[in-house]
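Structure tokens please, single chain.
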Amino acid sequence: MPSVCVLMRTKNSETTLGQALVGLFGQRAPGFELVVVDSGSTDATRSIAAQFPARLACIEASAYIPGRVLNRAIAETDAELMVFQNSDVVPLDPEALARLLSAFDDPLVDAAFARQLPRPEAEGWVRRDYASAFPATGAAPDWMPYSLPFAAMRRSAWQKRQFYERAWGSEDAEWGHAAKRAGKTIRYVSEARVMHSHNYTLNELYGRRFIEGEADAFIHQEPQRTFDTFRRCLRAVAGDALFHLRERDLRGLLLAPARRTVAFGAYHRGRSLGERRLSAGDHDVSQGQRTVLSRYRSGP
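Here you go.
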């Protein structure tokens, strides 16, 4: 079997890390090395990680640029297969990792990612979004080319194209879009099931969508149109209303307009920033970094 290294990024993850690691070490899969990269935790995250057979690397919070952290961590290993697991992702059965890695039995597969199911406490809009992004059967939608919360990649594929570092977020989406344009094969493995979701506050949602907008400027490299953004927002609000009416979710119905307005407004501002940076050849990722990290209670 190819050698396997699991990379896990943490920051103030004490409420989820133990569950994630118990799930990982309960997998019926070939042996693997675990590398945990912690970016300035101030809670019990590091002591929890120390209870498991892992190599812990610690960096300052200000040094956390997702693509850069991943590239450096991968460069310091020699595993043939890299597995990525978020510190709040829990495998739902002991075969999840083995099923994910089975995608690489096909020599043409360069990367693979798992099906994510929402947590029991997930709100209605979160459940709907996850059902759309990670279907129970078939392929993932085109707008979801790759998703790192539970995923794997051949080292050779990473060597040919590393994660981008030009913007703070969406390093998985950027890699996936570029890989598919280059004719690489990415397999969505719906049988590999993990639990992962976020009930974002409006503040957190703003940060998340801002960095996604900034990243999309670099991914797609075409100007956004304000009218199109406004039209997509209205369409999304209408879709939300129908969904919440069917679900008889009055709270969700009332919150939907504010949530979509915040999300699309943040995306538009982030996309505008990305377009300005792209045009100017600006490599400073600090504004997107500050925007998202200042809005999270722990780490994204």
